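Hi R.,

Here's the chain you asked about this morning:
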Amino acid sequence: MENKVLVETSARHVHLTEEHIAALFGAGHALTHKKDLSQPGQFACEERVTVVGPKGQIAKVIVLGPARPASQVEVSLTDARTLGVDAPVRESGDVAGSGACKLVGPAGEVELSEGVIAAKRHIHLTPADAEKFGVADKEIVGVKVTSEDRSLIFGDVVVRVSPKFAAAMHIDTDEANALHAKGEVYGEIVK
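And the predicted structure, written out as tokens:
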């Protein structure tokens, strides 16, 4: 798989600030580590919240750690329709002017005036990986993925390069379903 990158499905999830962790789960609460994610230092938590929009809600949405400087809700576009929220397609962390929602936890609620996005499909690479693939940070590429019956080429994939990353492409559940992704999936970067 030398010329290919692992393609992972990133399901709906929430990133929280320390302030919002306290509001949702109680003062002094620390996120409970459940399992490590593919990106170093990132982990899935035991904690869950309900995301509430004008049209509907989604219960038991996983919280990812560690705490972030700004709270953010990442959903698929199908989830956004269920919630009745405008979730622009953005890179993680780019929440200015994005969708609003309410988060409900066991100890309280938080109103987010912005922070709901559909994550732009992206590839995490180390500098060495980027050199190997012949790509640069913020470059937009395509990724060809072959599946049993729904092969496709994802366009508009942003390359993100950092020594803190592990090589992996992230797509949301809508995109994984379009691919009919099963098991371990790899894609080939195309320009």
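The longest strand covers residues 109-119.

Let me know if you need anything else.
M.
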